[in-house]
Amino acid sequence: MPTPASSADTPPLTAASHRPRVVVIGAGFGGLAAVRGLRHAPVEVTVVDRTNHHLFQPLVYQVATGLLSPGEIAPALRKILRRQHNTAVLLAEATDVDLTDRHIQVLEADGTTRAIGYDYLVVAAGSHDSYFGHDDWAEHLYPMKTLTEALGLRDQILRAYERATECGDPAGRARWTTFVIVGAGPTGVEIAGQLVALTRELREELHRDDSSPARIILIDALSEVLSTFPPTLRAHAHQRLTAMGVQILLDTRADAVDAAGITVKATDGHTERIDTHTVIWAAGVHASPLAATLAHAAGIDIDHKGRVPVQRNCSLTGHPEVFVIGDMANLHDLPGLSAPAIQEGRYVAKVLHHRTVGKPTPGPFTYRDRGTMATISARDAIADIYGVKLHGRLGKLAWAAVHISFLVGWGNRVGVLARWAFLLGSRTRSERVILTSIHADHAGPAHSPSGPTADR
Ligand SMILES: Cc1cc2nc3c(=O)[nH]c(=O)nc-3n(C[C@H](O)[C@H](O)[C@H](O)COP(=O)(O)OP(=O)(O)OC[C@H]3O[C@@H](n4cnc5c(N)ncnc54)[C@H](O)[C@@H]3O)c2cc1C
User: Fold this and answer.
1) Counting atoms of ligand 1 from 1, which one is nearest the CA of 145?
2) Is 190 among the residues known to form the active site?
3) Could you tell me the pTM of the whole model?
4) CB 45 within 8 A of CB 86
5) 135-282+437-442, what's its fold?
6) In this structure, what DSSP letter does residue 331 have?
7) Is pLDDT of 47 > 90?
8) Using CA atoms, how far apart are residues 306 and 449, in angstroms rounded to an integer?
9) What does the domain layout of the chain look like in residue ranges?
């Protein structure tokens, strides 16, 4: 049994053991898949995460728009892994890796640091928001990569409607009910659709005598929405969003962002100022800083997205005992999606299991692309599954089935399904609590991204 690792009083996790010690940094899609894949392996696993939960990022926007509660998409790690007896969970932030001495440095919740030794290391720390080199925008933007950010955005959206209702000045009211989303990939499209639905629901309560609808504006530097989808599905999504009232500005990028609005610039040089208190960021991510730490230690360069290039078996160049997976790894330039992270995690677990029991090493990692999907409204989604293209209700059914099956925990699956069914029937959502002060005009969380930027 590994040493439980919940406080600084516990003995070090590097305690002597005859079984190889596997340390996994990050319990997102990649890390959790690796940990679970090791459940029958003769190893002692320690999974280190700076949060106590596994976050299902594809549904974060539904928390941000009051449809789901945080717990429904973020089960506690200790609960998920409670029956995995070869695994200990440590709530701590990994701050450094010593490849020579084979240990990682962690900062624990009480502020103490310590070293944790490993025989094998799996690094799956994901990525963070990135603002195309404009870190000064961070205080005015609402990203939604973490639960804290999603709840900050939810507060802002709900507060905006309250403020609009109280505002006597039409221009002031319009500023509160204008929402600009930067990035027309799946995340941007999905939150746009949810904002349309939420606006309809809230207007019934808050704007009975207000005939001016909210403006929901989706901007993207590319010339298509959902540029990675097949053309027919892209066209369907574009047409549906427009019909729902979403204003789509393509070939247009964010040029300046401040507390009172955003200036956008089209590729033809035309600039436009949009007055708004809510700019939602769904555009750029950059790999975890641990990628640069590892690359530097291994004597290689990170790529323009901050990812560390890895070998065909996901290992770090010159370090067959270290594996890097998911958003922070560059293997054949796979996209920053959950599927590559999960498949890499499972693959690395298999490699480690085979090594520790003396079985032949599996061949190189191969990615199986099963397709991609995005939801547009309560009854419409697009999906490209193994080349089969679906939209409308069929697409929505496929989207719902896939998302439910990938959620962790039966309780969460049933809970989320029930919420969706309730919303369909009632057109109302219950997660409407404003958590921060009602006096905060702008409660956007501050971020400190670094390095170059990347589209997701
Ligand atoms: C809003 C949003 C919507 C998305 N929608 C989709 C979608 O619909 N479909 C899809 O396929 N993909 C989607 N993605 C992308 C997908 O979520 C990521 O590609 C995937 O999560 C990457 O997995 P990962 O394991 O590399 O990182 P993550 O899942 O991000 O996990 C990283 C983990 O590492 C932890 N961590 C980070 N740094 C440290 C540290 N220093 N010490 C300790 N722990 C650390 C974090 O707390 C986290 O638990 C979406 C992403 C976002 C942000």
Assistant:
1) 53
2) yes
3) 0.91
4) yes
5) FAD/NAD(P)-binding domain (3.50.50)
6) S
7) yes
8) 11
9) 21-129+286-357, 135-282+437-442
